[in-house]
User: What shape does this take?
Amino acid sequence: MHLLEGKESALARMPGARSTDILLAAPSSETLIYLIHGVTGTPLEMKYLGRRLFRHGWNVYLPTLPGHCSRYREMVDSDEKEWLSHVEMQLSYARLHCRNLFVAGLSAGALLALEASLRVPVEGIGVFSPTLFYDGWNVPWTLKLLPFGIKCLPNFLQRWFFHIDGAPYGIKDPALQGRIREAYHPVALMKGTLGRYFPRAHGSVQSPERSRSSEAVGYPLFSLKTLADLDRMYAQVRDHLHRVTAPTLILQAKEDDFTSPKNAEFIYRAIASEEKELILLDDCYHVITVDKQRDRVAEEMARFVERQSRPSENDDLDV
Assistant: This one.
């Protein structure tokens, strides 16, 4: 069954769906674009892009990775196997219900998209600010100790060592950067936590966009355990890049503060896709889906989807 036949009910039954997932359903479309946020991030990182793609008449689904948009303990308890399994499960379900399926992701979400494409056939992959190694201009020196910490500290101790995210938070836009700085203030984080447990004490429940909780801004902390999970995922994806054959669009900022364009260039050279494109963006940092070039990101992704989409069955009959 294609999405054209009972599509809305099919998408509403997405397995493993969370209340923080975002669905933009287009009743007459046979195309679904699945947008994966970054690890420690939130689906809202992809919402602007999703809305722009939805305007073209396509279905868009923004999942919530396991452990995200909840208590920080759940984030630490989750790992790369759970994230990948969740993405594969939902893409496999979507593959049964649509004619054209695209997967795209930001940062670690981009690697999940690449890896999932080896298990679920897709019409195209969007790779935004891919992270294989930390070499951006704002990466703290403490991350150089990461291999030592992973090797020497047992798992239960890795949970108690943290890297705290700091300015510019992957964003060049000063207004947005200021809002994130405010949201990451300890007092704001505490209010968000209390609001989840005692909503009546804080008035009416806020929407995710206006909340100061993990649903709106993600987690400002990376535990050593989560970094170790990511390190294993990076190694797995690097080893499998030569098997990626789906058409691929790669976008990254020239001034990426977290991971340099060498990451995008490495993936471009390593994948086996016959159709692939690498675009480096000016005037933005790591989180390109919300930063100053977000419109360019949406435009490039829309063109990519249009080029790679298979014609509908009705169009096939008209030829």
About this structure: Confidence is low (pLDDT under 50) at residues 1-6, 192-212. The longest helix spans residues 80-96. The chain is about 40% helix and 15% strand. The first strand starts at residue 22 and ends at 24.
